[in-house]
Amino acid sequence: MTKNKSITILGAGISGLAAAYWLQKEGYEIQILESRNEPGGAMQTESENSFLIDFGPNSGLETTPLIRQLVEEIGFNDEMIYASEISNKRFILRDNQLHILPTGLSPFLRTKLFSVQGKLRLFGEPFIGKSEDGYYQSIAQFVKRRLGQEFLDYAIDPFVSGVFAGDPHRLSVKSAFPKLYRLEEIYGGLVKGMIKGARERKKRAEESKQSAKMFSFVDGMQSFPKAIAARLKNNILFNCTVKNVELISMSNESKWKVSYENNGGIHDFSSDYILSTVPAYTTADILGRLDPGLADHLKEIYYPPVMVLYIGFYKKDIGRPLDGFGFLIPSKEKKNFLGAIWSSTIFPNRCDDDKAAFTLFVGGARSPHLFDTEKEILIDNALKEFKQIMNIKAEPIIIKERMWQRAIPQYNLGYIEHENYFDKFEKENPGIFLSGNYRGGISVGDCVKNSESVFKRIIEN
Ligand SMILES: Cc1cc2nc3c(=O)[nH]c(=O)nc-3n(C[C@H](O)[C@H](O)[C@H](O)COP(=O)(O)OP(=O)(O)OC[C@H]3O[C@@H](n4cnc5c(N)ncnc54)[C@H](O)[C@@H]3O)c2cc1C
Question: How far apart are CA 426 and CA 430, in angstroms?
Fold first, then answer.
């Protein structure tokens, strides 16, 4: 075990904080530099009147036991909450109607979400062979080939916007949905793979994304990174924007010197290791002088703009039951927003009992052009459509919006070239580690998993 080694961690989002916690426990001297004035990164919770507003992730999926372990270790058990049973039900909009996304054979046969031809096409999946060029396929090509156009349009297209705010024609199946890709690659098909994959996951004590429990915290998602940060003693410096990293020689050894800006002044300090968890475009600026090729790769990663629109109504004004997670809107339906989460139905403590809270998503990789429209008009359009779908006649009692100019990294076609370059960079620059949501998955669960794997790589170094 390497004790008393020092490490500077760039960024206090969930990726940086989880790794910092394990490294501190292992005896490393840690220092986190964060440009904002609080921990959490994309996990941002605010409250107003009785409304608890998550502007970033509204929930996470417990796809790994690491999340529960971390929660327990930091003594945050009583704060973790799971989604209500009813929120297993999800809706998809088709022809201005909300249809339940079927989860079993009999609801699938009965649903009007898919046509008879669309359903029959799905049954052909086990007989479709492997693709020649599977590696460089978009999720749209992959799904169209295996499951047909209608399943792509009314299941995968909305699902992809729900997870990545992404465009299925550009996202790489191999990089963005590695488990789906593996099902074909290893088992020859999705149905065959799902049966065998379930057995493998059982052995690894992992949960599939379909069966993993959805969690949040009593005081919202940001309370979790805040609680981790509180266990990191005083090792986080806020309002410190990292500018540069370079290798320097100190007596007989070399160290990594980090320069950062705080209060208009430039400061620096040195450490044995660097773990960067800041977004790809920022990492490009910080590490670009060490390796311009790395900067080129990082800058190519597209982060589409997304507007999060949080709205609340009195329950009495909502003309349909709030009996699910919310709904997603396929591109074909041509609306001004991607979907809506029925936030107060999923978790308790999101607003007073006589009110209901909703989170809408606008834009994403599918429709970044929407932001050419004036903000007020855009909000008005989305709100009108939402009210029509939900049969609401009244005006909202709260509207809050948050614009994410660069929301979520898109693992688009060719992402494998970036991934290979990241591996090469780490080999050529021993002591620097790259992590964060542009590597190994964008979900909160994936970020925690990736943090553990980078932690292991660091301690084995
Ligand atoms: C709108 C939205 C909704 C989402 N919904 C979900 C969801 O429902 N479920 C889910 O699982 N995931 C969701 N995600 C994805 C998930 O929240 C993120 O992928 C994850 O939180 C990223 O964590 P991270 O630590 O890797 O990066 P970040 O959270 O981005 O953290 C990086 C940190 O680096 C800091 N930083 C940047 N530049 C510098 C610098 N130069 N110097 C120092 N610090 C710097 C930033 O301020 C930030 O704190 C959502 C994301 C967004 C944006």
Answer: 6
